[in-house]
Amino acid sequence: YVEHYWAVAAPQNMAHKKRFASQVIKRFETGIEVFSQNAATAQRDALSGELAKLAQCWQSHNAPELAQATDDLFALYQRAFNRAAPAPVPTPAASGSSPQTTATSESGVTQPSAPAPQIVIDSHDDKAWRDTLLKVAAILCERQPDSPQGYR
C-alpha cells in the first residue's frame, strides 16, 4: 500500500512527500511504549518486518533520509520491546490454563472482546476519504474512550 501511495498519490512534489512521510513516522514514535507493553510476539514480529519493508521501499525510491528514520524507529521499538516484559502468548496446549487466567485477571488489563470491525478504505474522492476517516475515528472512540487519538 505505501509503495503504491508513494508512486501515485499526492503530493507529487518530492519534498512535500518526504515531509509528509517523516510526519507519519513521527506519529509512530508516540505509540512505542503502549505498543511494546500490549503487543503479542506475533504483532511485534509483524511490525519489525513491515518497518524493514518500508525502509527498503524508501531506499529504492531514493529517499535515504526516510529509510534512516524508519531504521531509527525500528531501533526505538526494539529497545522498548527489550525493556517491556515478555509478551503474553496464549497457548491452548498449556496444562496450567487456570493460573494463566488468574494472572490475566489480576493484571487488570482487559482485552476487547469483540474483533475489530473491517473498514473499507474508500479514497476515490475527498468526501469518501473523509467519511472513512470519521468511521475509523468513531471506532477508536468506541474502543478506547480514554485515548485522545480518536478525537483528534
Question: Can you walk me through this structure?
Answer:
Residues 100-113 have a biased composition (Polar residues). This is Type VI secretion system protein TssA. Residues 86-122 are annotated as: Disordered. By secondary structure, the chain is mainly α. It has two domains: 1-87; 114-152. The protein has helices at 2-8, 14-29, 32-38, 41-60, 64-83, 97-107, 126-143. The protein is globular, with a radius of gyration of 19 Å. The protein starts with a helix and ends in a 9-residue tail after the last helix.
Write the layout of secondary structure elements.
Elements: H1 2-8, H2 14-29, H3 32-38, H4 41-60, H5 64-83, H6 97-107, H7 126-143
Helix pairs in contact: 2-5, 3-5, 4-5
Biased composition (Polar residues): 100-113
Protein name: Type VI secretion system protein TssA
Region (Disordered): 86-122
What does this entry show, briefly?
This is Type VI secretion system protein TssA. It comes from Escherichia coli. This protein is an all-alpha fold and 152 residues long.
Give the overall shape, derived from the CA principal axes. Answer: globular
Low-confidence stretches: 90-112
Q: How much strand?
A: under 5%
Q: What value does the Rg take, in angstroms?
A: 19 Å
How many strands, what sense, and barrel or not for the largest sheet? none
Number of domains: 2
Helix-strand topology string: HHHHHHH
Mean of all residue-level pLDDT scores: 77
Q: Helices and strands: which structural class?
A: mainly alpha
Termini Cα gap: 24 Å
Number of helices: 7
User: Percent of residues in helical segments?
Assistant: 55-70%
Number of strands: 0
